[in-house]
Amino acid sequence: MTIRASKALLLFALGFYYTLVVFNNTNDYNTNLTFVRHVLLMDTTFPGNNGMWRAIHAPAVPWLFFGSIVIWEIITGTLCWWAGFRLMRNLRSSAVTFNAAKKLGVIGLTLSLLMWLTAFLTVGNEWFLMWQSKEWSGESGADHMFAIAGIILLYLVTPDVEGQA
Prior knowledge:
Elements: H1 2-27, H2 29-41, H3 60-89, H4 95-100, H5 103-127, H6 139-157
Helix pairs in contact: 1-2, 1-3, 1-6, 2-3, 3-5, 5-6
């Protein structure tokens, strides 16, 4: 039962993280939108790099990127919270039932991994060369969150068996 509860608590923790991320992104949207705008403009990447043709100067595009990230975060956080509640509701269920209840958590954690890997590490970091910027790089945070979500996902999908601690 302890292992089952720990899986639910980790999903709650990640749901709480996303709740704060969404709060910060909507409460101080201008700061976060500015971050996205600078990444897309590539205005603080290494001078003279050959990737500057990728920069996006259209003023509406940062809003679209930022809005889609926030929606992605809302969905991911909601799924993590919901999955945590489903696991807590099934703590005393059979192993088969508890394992089946993990589905929402797997979906939420996969969305989290996809966000960090696709939106931040691939599109932001590699396509828009965010790693070259000292002022506007989210690489370190994305690395950490990808690792955290990945570890939780690996732990979550470990099958629970009858009589486990």
